[in-house]
Amino acid sequence: MAEERDWELSRTGAGWALTNTSGRTARSVHVEFQGTFGGRPWREGVTPAGGLPAVGVVPPGHTVRMSVLNAETTHTVHVRWTFGLRRRLWPTRV
């Protein structure tokens, strides 16, 4: 399980911003948002790729902005990534 100091998550307008605060490059990053809209659960996966040197790579201190449909109804965010050979998971309620 990851520590909260590895990532910082914040709301931005119609989406979310995720910052790598670990001091190490995160690879194979995948972010999954979960929520409820109109009484129905929804789930949306995002692999940040815009403006990054490689798909799913987030360097230390880098912030990735993500647009999510129904972002205001999000209640849980899961971030999965690797540091070297170790796979990590950071689930957080928002």
The count of helical stretches stands at 0
As an assembly, this protein is: single chain
**How far apart are the termini?**
18 Å
Q: Which strand-content bin applies to the residues?
A: over 45%
Taking Cα atoms only, what radius of gyration do you get, to the nearest Å?
13 Å
List low-confidence stretches.
none
Mean pLDDT: 84
SSE succession: EEEEEEE
Task: Provide an overview of this structure.
The chain is mostly beta strands and 94 residues long. It has strands at residues 7-12, 15-20, 27-37, 40-46, 63-67, 74-83, 86-93. The protein has a four-stranded antiparallel beta sheet with strand order 4-3-6-7, with no helix packed on it. It is globular and about 40 Å long. The protein starts with 6 loop residues before the first strand and ends with a strand.
What is this entry, summarized?
The protein is mainly β and 94 residues long.
Fold topology:
Layout: E1 7-12, E2 15-20, E3 27-37, E4 40-46, E5 63-67, E6 74-83, E7 86-93
Antiparallel strand pairs: 1-2, 2-5, 3-4, 3-6, 6-7
Key structural traits:
94 residues, mainly beta, four-stranded antiparallel beta sheet, three-stranded antiparallel beta sheet
